[in-house]
Amino acid sequence: MTAISTQGLSKYYGTVKALDNLNLEVPENAVFGFLGPNGAGKTTTVKLLTGFAHPTSGLAWVAGEKVGDGNLALQSKIGLLPDVPAFYDWMTGREFLHFVGELHSLPPVEIKKRTEELLELVELKKAGNRRTGGYSRGMRQRLGIAQALINRPKVLFLDEPTSALDPLGHREVLNLVLRLRENTTIFMSSHNLSDIERVCDMVGIIDKGKLITVSTVEALQKKYARSIFELEFMEDAGPFVESLKKIPWLAEPAIVTGNGAPMVRVRAIDIDRARKELPRVITESGLTLTRYELSLPSIEDIFMEIMTNGDKR
Amino acid sequence: MKGFAPLFKKEIREQLKLYRLVIVLGVFLLFGLSSPLTLKYLPDILKMAGDQGMIIQLPTPTAAQSLASYAGDIGQIGALVAVLIAMGCIANELKSGTVVMTLSKPVSRSAFVSTKLIAMSLTFLVSMTIASLVCFAYTVWLIQGSAVLPFVGLNLMMGLFLVFCLAVTMLFSSLYKSSLAAGGIALGVIIVQGIISAIPVVGKYMPGKLLDWGTNLLTGSDKTYWWALGITIVGIGLCVYLSQRFLKNRDL
Question: Which domain holds residue A290?
């Protein structure tokens, strides 16, 4: 089943293409990371998918509901954390959650229960009776997440959810996302690459309003695998590196010193052959192997490559 | 009108929490108290302030004069207060982003807009009723002789005119993110219709004529302005409709 689907979704502001012909399918219960630099069209996409912006052309469906035309059924199935969550300053955090529960027409008992549950979840129980006007940016962010969850949404939109959080709050929000993925589809826009890598199982990369690539994180890492082997030995690997230079399916062997112990890095010209034969070559060298790794690129590496060269692979 | 009840409750609480009711009531009470007082004691004040040789002859104040003076103040200052109270009602929410937080829930734009107007109107009507009761009681006590029904009629006309001022201001508040821009344009519209209402032939269609009609009730004149009444009611409805349309059509 598809939780989010778009067909040729576009948004132009005059001649500026904020979003250009977006065709996207996000399956149910996926955590979809929407990556892109500032001004790439991430927030515009979230606004279009939640009905807060009108598309220039194209169609979108979220949680089985067509987006647009004031479809209120859509709003009862989604939760939204905007990029800058705003509250009525005169309300307390607890009052705001209660108000949001009423807007969702939840029964009073359920509102009370959910309010307390969510305050606990986002660790605002103690500050629940304080006016939101006095909340810090991080507290506002956490209350924003709580209000988006009150109706147990089928699809949750998080626009830069960790942008204002300290490292602890940052980690808590990501853990929360991981817990929610069991019952909810999460569409998370961010320019924080490590966040996406940690919690998302699907990634879309957007730049200048155009979706460049969309894939699972694993497939993307495989696609952009750099064919670099990293090896660590207990003994001096100098002579071994010299022997590697003579092998035609390997290139650029070298001893590099990173943060830890010195290691051998070598690029495979023929990755399949290297995978098969390199372990034999190591065994024949007589060295004691302590680490053997075909290094996978991080989402950051992939993102940087796509931003620089486009999705050419 | 999905979401009407919680939104209305929130708007009423906002009127109280942000002291809007207290402010409007305070301003209206000031005029309710000062109109009969000024009229009653103006001759004495002038006598004390003037030269010994100068004689200023003032007619004996009447209850109708006191109530009409109060109505004139409310018509002008009340309209200004209406603009000040309503100019940020949607504009401030557009600017801060609370409109997105609220409308991302299953609530209709028409409920969002209409609850604002109803809550603000209640603030004004409650304040005006209390101030009018005080003014009436003071007038009867200090000046004597007053008819209840014409004064009730005057209040209904004033109330409707003030609701019109609120609705016009809310309309511009839904168009602009700047509450100052919304307030400025709304005030301009109210002033212009006030000027037009003084022009023969077209003046009778302007909502401002309701204040004249109310004063006529006090003085016993039977001149009516049914067109102005109808246009005001239609205008209020149109402002609500257009406000929610503007909210629906704009990107938030």
Answer: 226-295
